[in-house]
Amino acid sequence: MADDPTAGEHGSPAHPRGHGTATRSPGGPEVHAPAVSGRLVRPAVPQPEQTGASEAGRASGPGRSATVTKRLANLLDADRGGRPGGSGGEPPPAADRTAWWWLRHEWTLAVLAGLLLAVVLTWPTLRHPWTTIPGDLGDPTLQAWQVAWSGHALLTDPLALWHSNTFFPERYTYAYSDTLLGYAPAGLFVSDPQEAVFRYNILYVLSHALAFVGAYALVRQVGARRIAAAVAAVAWAYAPWRLAHSGHLNILSIGGIALCLAMLARGHGWSLRDGHQPQRHRPGWALAGWLVAAWQVSLGFGIGLPLVYFLLAGCVVVAAAVGWVRLRRGRYLFGRRLLLADLGGGAVLAATCVSIGSVYLRVVDQNPQAERDLAWTRWLSPPLRGYVVAPADSWLWGTRHTYARAQLSWAPEMALLPGVTLIVLAALGLAYSSFRLRHRVLLGLGVLVSGALGLGSNLGADGDPGYLTLSRLLPGWDALRTPGRMMIWTSLLLAILAAGAITAIGDDMARAARGTPDESADNPKVAPTVRPGWRVARVALVLPLALVLVEGVNRTPHPEVPRAPTALRSASAPLLVLPSDGLLELNIMLWSTDGFPQVANGLAGFVPTSQQRTREITAAFPDPASVAYLRQAGIRSVVVLPDRLAGTAWDGVPNRPVDGLGITREEVDGALVYHLDPSTG
Question: How large is the angle between the packed helices 255-267 and 301-329, nearest 10 degrees?
């Protein structure tokens, strides 16, 4: 595709010399910005802090409280149009940007705030990061192993990444669940279970920080003020419903969704307040957005696949818009560089999907039982009342909603409260917002559609049309058996609506603080004055932020992780640990990070045929049949944990004799190690 000959530097129509474009100051009249050599020069707009500081200062009187209020108000204010900056105004030239300028830059402060909030609102995760883990002792220990294994494989044998050390002798075992592959760098040089738990806890905290920063960036890009973006980011990153998934790092790792959308919007010069601005095309940002999307998908298809389909739908809409503009106006919306960035980034995302998806298809081919029918989706479909029920780990709502949760068949996937404050602010944002009416309508429709899909089979006639329709039509969607996780998208749209309302309130406060309309609004040469109490009024916008923070406070349990038995170091690999069922399998996977020996243990959403056969035969261990079977399968050692056998199929194993079986048994710190090496037979 050739560029439009009338396009400027970024593939947009160049403005003729001597002409300008209309723009509007925050709360002020339209003024005309001159264009110089096809590039827009942004006019200097009088800011309340600059023009009325002396009047406000005299009205407030001297004192420390007035200074603090002024600084807080300045921090909460922002320019319009979703163009985040530093401390205010246009950034200085690159040569004049000192270290202090970078430290007080908006994005530096946003990242630091995200990290601080993550530490505080996930506390006490970092109190004992080597020995405790948030949630429970099930999935978190599995995911700690997943992160550690991917890092170990990258260092030792990248080609064997998918063939992990668990579920011996099966292959492609790393793909038996969402892989968290994108976190592989965090798993480098893990040497023991304590180190794996520490890395997991760090990622747990950082995933919340990234969710905040990603949502903040997206909401700022679409045109909200800083305080509005902060409220939206906290409301999304720390929504009450997410507390039900404290043990699911793959579900908590959603920051890449908002971040990639923010980058793509910035790269394509688009926001809700200003629409499409071709002069603001940034191909580099667009490419970065696609790469972040690919990274998000690498963390797991459970959350990444809906993002892929959303981006695909967006590409269809944009392609139709490009074709329409080309047909009606004879020019292209995008320049060559932006198109190449989109094609290159889209190719990386597609390659990521195909490469990971092909591995999952291999798993299903080798294990037909791994493919689940839609009965799982029907069972996990939440009722409509689930949207106003909070999980037990919510500090504010958990106890109050105990009875309501008891009415849900599976509360962890059906307690979906996005936050009372968020719901109220989003409802306000539908009627009163800084965003255009058509955009609010589209956001509202998005909330309804995503919320309806989240009901699964409880919408319409058995989910048709709805979630089950997508399960039948879209490749891979049938594997997403938990419709309630569509709340990721519902709450994000609610957050954007809420940000529009808060931004509108801030805009009205700014307009009310300026001089009378006949003096300043109609005459840009007259500097508007600032009414004395307006900065104090702006500080009141902190109230919604405080409310969403309170709703995000957790009471998540942090149990101590069981220490690995010393006997595991005395056993030759490949080995089997008994008992071999239940959540202990996940603990064994974590324990295997000490050297990553091959183990026959493991737990997934299905039971491989070889594992089921091993469990059935070893119920009589040690006996001639089980010993012969294990030797044939390649197992060299069996570790028995007597304190874990009660009530299992292996209860009584320690009391059985080993005479005449050609094996040896030794006791190591209360555990039993059976050596099945053929040389001892």
Answer: 10
